[in-house]
Design goal:
Order of helices and strands: EHHEHEHEHHEHEHEHEHH
Shape: globular
Number of domains: 1
CATH class: Alpha Beta
Radius of gyration: 17 Å
Strand content: 15-25%
Structural class: alpha/beta
Distance between the termini: 13 Å
Largest sheet: 8 strands, parallel
CATH architecture: Alpha-Beta Barrel
CATH superfamily: Metal-dependent hydrolases
Length: 259
Amino acid sequence: MTIRFADSHCHLDITLLSDAQGIVWIRDMACLSVSWSYSGKIRTTDDLRTYFSKQRQAISLLNDNGLRCYYLCGIHPRDIPGDLSAEMVQELLKPCIDDPLCLGIGEIGLETGSNREKEILAAHLDMAGEVVGRNKVFGLHTPRRDKARITSELLEMLDKYLIYREHIVVDHCTVDTIATVLEKGLWAGITMNPEKCRPADLVSIVEHHKGSTDRIMLNTDSSTKMYRDLHELSGNKAIDETVRLRLIRQNALRFYHLE
């Protein structure tokens, strides 16, 4: 099947439960999707184990039903339970990392920038040798609130891992934060939906970063709410067609080693 566009970050396991017709639309539109871990209902480490198992099952089921999709597994900063220690992170993720449908670790990152979040993020990043050795990647979250400061703190943490920069995407970048990500040589993700980034914002980003469009990929971050912005962008003449194809398909396939 020819891939028309790629959603480099969504939450298919949530969409599967909330919008079955949305899943059908994704399949019919020939959209390749990469679903990142996030629950919003995690209270204990056992909840994480259960969630990761259900996530793997959901992605396997969707593939069996004709939707080409993959996933990242990781502990979202809003999903860190009180009984989780940094030493437990690797053991929790190992079953996912061994799955061929798992392309790496995510959604990890910072929400408030607390020491607790940084401790758990560091535990994920310390798996970089094993993850990259398997040709897999990291997907990192930046928050809506206080984005510039938190992004700066995240990038400071990534400084010791820049040897793996080709395998790291920092997501939810905006007009105000994307330059700092690209300057580090990292990949930048942009979430196209009315709440995070609109087409006019994307046009501005492309105009200001013409030399870096080979390291920018787009996504919708769809979960309970389905966004069709990538499909709409596929016909947006305000962006050069060659660049547009990179943003909506080719870059994501290259980053995830799916070409």
